[in-house]
Amino acid sequence: MVLFWLVLAGVAAPLAISLTSVQDNDSLTSAPHSSEAYRAQQRVEQAFPDADALVAVAVYTRDGGITDADRAAVEADRTSFARYAIDGVPPAVPSEDGEALLLSFPLRGDPDTQSAATSDIRDALDTGEPAGLETALTGSAGASGDVFDAFEGMDVLLVLVTAAVVAVLLLVTYRSPVLWLIPLLTVGVASQVASAVVYLLAKNAGLSVDLQAQNVLTILVFGAGTDYALLLISRYREELRRHENRHRAMANALRRSFPAIAASAATVSLALLCLLFADLNSTRALGPVAAIGIAAAFVAMTTLLPALLVVCGRWLFWPFVPRVGDTTGDSRGWSAVARFVGRRPGRVWGSTAVILAGLALGATTLSLGIPADETFTGEVGSVTGQRLVAQHYAAGTSAPADVVVDAGRADEVVAAARGVDGVTAVGAPRVSGDTAVIPATLTDPPDSQAAEDTIDRLRAAVDGTGALVGGQTAGQLDTERATDRDHRLLVPLILGVVFVILVVLLRALVAPLLLILSVVLSYAAALGAAAGVLHLLGYPRLEYSIVLTTFLFLVALGVDYTIFLMTRAREERSVQRALVSTGTVITSAGVVLAATFAALCVLPLTPSLQLGVIVAVGVLIDTFVVRSLLVPALALHTGRRFWWPSRHA
Question: Which of 58, 152, 310, 385 is 20 to 30 Å from 203 at the Cα level?
Fold first, then answer.
């Protein structure tokens, strides 16, 4: 088995390294394929082959007014930038207050050429301009360049930070200078294999993978894989205290821990695959990629890890080597918890539920929708440029709406668009064949609610002409509505999948229902508790897909620990004994999983930080409150009814 995995790792390594080459990050920003904005974009690209080119918007400002020297410098830039533009660079557009000039032009060439041009333009704006003239590059070119710069090398950094966090926590957990290396090595191999499989499917089978999905893949493999390792090694250590033969000890440990690990992996994988029914592109892409990661972690931890542990022998546990007949353990604290829960289970679960409900109220202080200037955790050029444009021009100048219509009805649509409240200017139609594209500049910032309201009015005004309204704001509006639809569909679907798995695993109906209610309450409490952290960090406005993504992870991963506890309770025929025997390992697993998700905070995107904070807080709540107090108390308080209709003492 070890040799098989060594060969597999050798084959997988070069493929895993190539994963970034097949990323398609358009799904992170493009509108859902069923939306009007996407259909408008497709029609524009059919009529104008260069319509998907990045647009560079260079803005120049000076307090007190643009000088002649500034105009000369801008004109020199215009001449210089012409070699990057598709049809030259139009003359600079002055602001009404006389304090700004703006150059806007699409970039020519393939994506690599456009990326290189963006870098050159940004360098030119940073050097050689007259003193006191503030410059910035925004538009889609500026935003794309900022994303590339921000994440350059971040995939490696995320792996290193995650591995370091896991290594430290395993070292603390096992208090052994050697043992921690085995699960870390195994989870590293699993991560490589998962990345290789995703790469092959993306390259040859059309699987969509973006930056977000790749980052979550790394976190899930390390987090879930380490959890499975902790559970297996804990059972192995127990069996080593019963059996002299380590092969027999591992056989027993694997047989007894496998059902819980398999149920956990199945729960998370199937819940993730529910995302295939999402409308939002980035959400749909995340599901299968993350499910592959869970599958790789499950297979590695139930085949490679046991083989490595058996090959190496008992000395791995040094200096606390388990011996036959040794009854020492770390359960004294958990014995006290079990006695506390057992004395008054009704009061324990009732007071715990009230506390969690109180925490959940904090979620009301959060809002949905991240403004463009808060997308990154630090200041970047495209955000600075957007702000400068908004200060001196109509706020929607850098991102006008595109109205796409048959060329024969262009004049009718222009007249209708000019009468829409919130549209400050309507440009001349661009015609190609039988398609006309009419730019409509909005009065309000493109990421504002007011701008979205204008899009609705614009769509109503041109209704009946066959026109489609697209552009950045329209795409944002359609994305928000698709997210709302995904929430309504996927939340009950995910809960249903988890419920069915729990019914099959526990052979009961009451227990799964109560467990589902507990994880929903846990999620609400996590969102409320995380709200305090996000307010302190200055990011209380959530990206729209974060609500669904965090719900999925906290429900699927949170129920994992309950699965570990309840399967042990069936085996021990006692919830209190199960709480004692699993207390240390499940708590360690929760801390590891929370820490791995917290590693997402090293990424410079606000949605990644929000995902890391909410899931980390939620996992800790589930580990220390829900699984330790609420669920055991519920099980003890309801007694045999908890396991209905099965018969369980």
Answer: 152
The Cα 641–Cα 618 span in angstroms is: 28
pLDDT for the residue 206: 85
Identity of residue 413:
V
pLDDT at site 152 = 67
Phi and psi at residue 327, in whole multiples of 5°? Answer: -110, 5
Cα–Cα–Cα angle for 322, 328, 331, rounded to 5 degrees: 120
User: Rounded to whole angstroms, how far apart are CA atoms 493 and 270?
Assistant: 10
Which of 314, 644, 299 has the alpha carbon at shortest distance from 506?
Answer: 644
Percent residues over pLDDT 70 in the chain? 97
- Inter-residue contact 8 to 193 (CB < 8 Å): yes
Q: Is the predicted pLDDT of residue 576 greater than 70, yes or no?
A: yes
219, 265, 620, 622 from 593: Cα distances, Å: 9, 14, 9, 11
| pLDDT (0 to 100) of residue 36 | 94
Dist. CA 479–CA 471, nearest whole Å: 12
CB within 8 Å of 188: residues ≥ 6 apart: 163
Per the CB < 8 A criterion, the answer to whether 398 and 447 are in contact is: no
Alpha-carbon distances of 110 from 50, 56, 113, 138, 196, rounded to whole Å:
10, 15, 5, 19, 27
- Is residue 245 within 8 Å of residue 185, measured between CB atoms? no
Residue 255 makes CB contacts below 8 A (sequence gap 6+) with none
Rounded to an integer, what distance in angstroms lies between the CA atom of residue 119 and that of residue 121? Answer: 6
Cα–Cα distance for residue pair 455/461, rounded to 1 Å? 10
d(CA 476, CA 446): 9
Average pLDDT over residues 19-29: 74
Query: Which candidate, 113, 139, 88, places its Cα nearest to that of 384?
Result: 139
- The percent of residues in the chain predicted with pLDDT above 90, rounded, is 51
Identify the band that residue 573 occupies on the pLDDT scale cut at 50, 70 and 90: confident
From 500, 522, 520, select the one nearest 512 (Cα to Cα).
Answer: 500
Interior angle at CA 537, CA 536 and CA 538, nearest 5: 90
Per DSSP, what are the bridge partners of residue 442?
423
State the Cα–Cα distance between residues 649 and 647, nearest whole angstrom.
7
SS3 state at 441 = strand
Residue 244 DSSP symbol = S
Q: Which two tokens stand for residue 243?
A: 């059996």
Tokens of 606: 């606000």
Residue 572 — pLDDT band, cuts 50, 70, 90? Answer: confident
Instruction: Report which of 579, 556, 559, 596 is spatially closest to residue 170, judged by C-alpha positions.
Output: 596
In SS3 terms, 578-600 reads as HHHHHHHHHHHHHHHHHHHHHHH
Average pLDDT over residues 205-232: 88
* HEC secondary structure over 489-536: HHHHHHHHHHHHHHHHHHCCCHHHHHHHHHHHHHHHHHHHHHHHHHHH
- Assess contact for 636 and 576: CB atoms under 8 A: yes
